[in-house]
C-alpha cells in the first residue's frame, strides 16, 4: 500500500476527555447560594399558598397573618423547603461535576470529635442561658413559645418536632456548612472568612428573633463552622444542630407549662 493511500480501517474516534470535578469559588457559590435560597423560599411559599386557599371566606391581611403565624404553617413550610433545597444543591453540584456527597462533605467523623463538639455546644448554650438570666431576659424566644402554643392547639406538636429537629437542621446545614462553606473556603476568603460569612448568612436566616438571639445564633454558627472545618464532616453539624433544636424545643415546652 502506498504511503499516500488511506487505510481501509478508519481511525477510532477520539473520546472527549471527561470533565474534571471542580468547586464553585466565591462568585459561583454566592450566585448558586441565591438560587438555593430562592428554591427554599418557593418551597415554603407553596405551603402558605395552599393553606390560604383552604381558608373560608375572603383572604385579607388578618387571615394571612393568622396563617403565617400558625404552628402548622411554619412546620409544613420548613419541611417542604427541604426537598427544594436538596434539588437546587444537587443541580449545583452536578453542574460542577462533583458527587453530591463529596461536595457537601457528607461523611461521619470520629466519636471523639462528636463528643468534643457536643461538649462545646453545651458549654456555649449554657453560657448564653446564664447571660440571658443575668440580664433579666427570657431564656426562650417569644417566637418559639407562640409557635409551640399554636402547634399544641392544633395537636401538631409532633409535626413541629419533625420540622425543627429534622428538616431544619438538614436544610440549613447542607446549605450553609455544606455548600456555602465548601465554595467560600476554597476562594480568597479561606476557611476563616468562610466560617464568618456563612455564619452571618445563617444568622440572617433567623429574622424571627431579636438581637440577643441573633448574637447567640451567630456564635453557634461560628462553632459549627469551626467543627465543619476541623473534622471535614457536615453530618456532624447536622446532628449537633438537631440536638440543639431538640433541646430548645423541650426547654420551651417545659417553660411554657411552668
Task: Kindly report the average pLDDT value.
Answer: 89
Percent of residues in beta strands: under 5%
* Residues in helices, as a percent range: over 70%
How many domains, as an integer? 1
Q: Can you walk me through this structure?
A:
This protein has 258 residues and is mostly helical. The chain has one domain (26-256). Helix content is 74%, strand content 0%. It has 10 helices and no strands. The protein has helices at 26-53, 61-69, 71-95, 100-103, 111-134, 142-153, 157-185, 190-204, 211-231, 234-256. Helix 3 (71-95) packs parallel to helix 7 (157-185) and helix 8 (190-204) packs antiparallel against helix 9 (211-231). The longest helix is centred in the middle third of the chain and has 29 residues, at 157-185. Residues 2-7 have low confidence and may be disordered.
In short:
The protein has 258 residues and is an all-alpha fold. It contains 10 helices and no strands.
Amino acid at each position: 500500500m502506498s504511503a499516500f493511500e488511506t487505510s481501509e480501517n478508519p481511525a477510532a474516534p477520539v473520546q472527549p476527555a471527561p470533565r474534571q470535578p471542580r468547586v464553585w469559588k466565591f462568585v459561583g457559590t454566592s450566585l448558586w447560594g441565591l438560587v438555593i435560597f430562592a428554591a427554599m423560599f418557593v418551597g415554603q411559599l407553596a405551603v402558605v399558598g395552599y393553606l390560604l386557599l383552604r381558608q373560608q371566606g375572603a383572604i385579607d391581611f388578618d387571615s394571612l397573618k393568622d396563617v403565617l403565624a400558625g404552628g402548622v404553617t411554619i412546620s409544613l413550610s420548613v419541611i417542604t423547603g427541604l426537598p427544594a433545597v436538596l434539588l437546587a444543591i444537587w443541580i449545583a453540584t452536578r453542574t460542577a461535576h462533583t458527587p453530591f456527597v463529596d461536595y457537601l462533605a457528607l461523611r461521619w467523623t470520629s466519636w471523639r470529635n462528636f463528643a468534643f463538639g457536643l461538649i462545646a455546644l453545651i458549654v456555649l448554650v449554657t453560657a448564653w442561658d446564664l447571660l440571658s438570666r443575668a440580664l433579666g431576659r427570657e431564656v426562650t424566644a417569644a417566637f418559639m413559645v407562640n409557635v409551640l402554643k399554636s402547634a399544641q392547639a392544633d395537636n401538631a406538636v409532633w409535626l413541629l418536632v419533625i420540622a425543627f429537629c429534622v428538616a431544619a437542621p438538614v436544610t440549613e446545614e447542607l446549605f450553609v456548612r455544606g455548600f456555602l462553606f465548601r465554595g467560600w473556603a476554597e476562594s480568597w476568603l479561606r476557611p476563616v472568612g468562610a466560617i464568618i460569612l456563612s455564619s452571618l448568612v445563617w444568622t440572617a436566616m433567623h429574622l424571627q428573633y431579636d438581637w440577643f438571639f441573633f448574637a447567640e445564633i451567630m456564635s453557634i454558627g461560628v462553632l459549627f463552622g469551626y467543627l465543619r472545618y476541623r473534622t471535614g464532616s457536615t453530618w456532624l453539624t447536622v446532628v449537633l444542630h438537631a440536638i440543639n433544636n431538640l433541646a430548645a424545643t423541650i426547654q420551651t415546652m417545659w417553660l411554657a407549662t411552668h
